[in-house]
Amino acid sequence: MTTTEDRLPLTAHYDVRRDAAGHRYLEPFVRGFDLTRIPLLNKGTAFTEEEREALGLDGLIAPQVDSLETLVDRLYRDYVRVQEPLDKHVFLRDLQDRNEVLFYALLAAHVEEMLPVVYTPTVGLAVQQFSRIYRVPRGLVLSTRDIDRAEGTLANVPLNDVRIIVATDSSAILGIGDQGFGGLGISIGKLSLYVVAGGVGPDKTLPVELDVGTNRQDLIDDPDYLGVHHRRLTGDEYLAFVDRFVEATRRRYPKAIIQWEDFSRDAAFTVLERYRKVVPSFNDDIQGTGAVVLAGLLNACRLKGERLRDQRIVVHGAGAGGIGVTDALRRGLMRDGLSDEEARARLFVLDQTGLLLRDRELDGYKRPYAHDSATLDFTYADRALGLLETVQGAGATILVGLSGVAGAFGEDVVRAVQANTRQPIVFPLSNPTAHCEALPEDVLRWTNGEALVATGSPFHPVELGGRTHPIGQGNNAFIFPGLGFGAILAGAREITDEMVLEAAYALADYTGREHPERLYPPVADLPGASVEVAARVIRQALRDGVAQEPGLGELDDPALTERVRAKFWRPKYLPFRAPRADGARS
Ligand SMILES: O=C([O-])CC(=O)C(=O)O
Ligand SMILES: [Mg+2]
């Protein structure tokens, strides 16, 4: 007996085909009312007369036929009436769950205004309130309830050709820690950026929550919390869970890339190393943040007329982001001519206790950046070196914050950096806004407007002494969409460290060329930056021998960039055609 599954491509709701003239059209496998309930298919009042008649929609939709542009304008007028950021987030997420093309058309038309709502900082709030704002399913939740049936669970996803997955275990969401099931919100938010800034079609994206439990007793005790109510799996049990997810994913989506997101400390490094050669994958907080910070610091040095190799860099925070940034900077310093040893000697990393020193007891992933207190050229009292002492002792010219600790960069610390250089480079990068190490306005005030400042979450430009200082957003959003898109287009079987490093230099070069006075491009230019990052990532994948997509090697640089542009998904409603009874193309 043939089941429906044998005949239809698994659970997808439609196919995209081309007519004889090469124009794309969509062939839905559902009709009538169902079309208005599947977000990737629903066009609202933009279904044409012919589509309504052919697809069983007559009488179900308001009579007027609108264009996508009209709908965008109408929705925007509704949107601006919503006051609270979280309500705006819910407004946009509701739209996404109702009419996905319209959501992306609206977002694309107002990137700068809406990114802080679908992404940081408001996504932080949405994650914290996730169980309360939860309405309809989106993405995949694998929990301790169903991980033993992972393959069947993945088969339920109504998408057949997923290329990019953002997966989190929610153990360290942004700077706000363990969020349990709510972390699904960050995976959803990141993937919106993949679409609007990275050119990946929404039907190619899958947000994933690995619900292994939570260590937050308040969540476990909360009857309204929608995740599994037990403590987190650890050790071998935890890894067995992630193994099953990876295996099932490989089988269902052999071409998919996995972006690991917001895993805490050791888990972040363990998971990345365990799977990066099994499935093309990268960790956004270690590698994406590393690359975006390297790019911003290269630009800051360019603006100062100095070189990276001449800087002394203090990184405050030794989680996935802090160590990832340190690693990217080590590679950048080496590309600028230093030996590995010389590069390490210029990098000073602090965790909650203070400067990483070899004679302290340290987690394995921190050890590579610990200094030997015997050879350190500034004195080590019989206590841990704090931030101020390290900045002074190390002669820091650059200060980077990935600690999640609001206000960690006080006036004394920032002034101490300026004692070492007229134009200190200060990047308080923790997200969301409430966890930022210092307010840009304060940093500029304390340094008489001389500091070069970038943050992780968006800040308004600062007016000081008659000058306007735009605040660059040093957020991995400038890296991951282009890195992932490039890896997809290359058919990369692995995402190498060199591809990530190349993404950083691509972003630095793009900013220097297109926005020479800035540390990062304006957010409205995210798509432009992503195209450049993607093209250079493909080139590096070819150099590294990991690109499997045929024919790319023959393209010169402009042609490669053109290829990326041509593949960039843009929100528009495709014409629909009812499937022909004989299954042939119409
Ligand atoms: O999501 C963001 O805004 C950047 C990021 O990865 C984090 O802070 O964990
Ligand atoms: Mg993150």
From TrEMBL:
Domain (Malic enzyme N-terminal): residue spans on this chain: 96-276
Gene3D superfamilies documented for this protein: Malic enzyme, N-terminal domain, NAD(P)-binding Rossmann-like Domain
CC cofactor: Mn(2+)
Record keywords, A-Z: Metal-binding, NAD, Plasmid
Superkingdom field: Bacteria
Pfam families given in the database record: malic (PF00390), Malic_M (PF03949)
Domain Malic enzyme NAD-binding, chain residue ranges per copy: 286-542
Family: Belongs to the malic enzymes family.
Protein name: NAD-dependent malic enzyme
Species the sequence originates in: Deinococcus aetherius
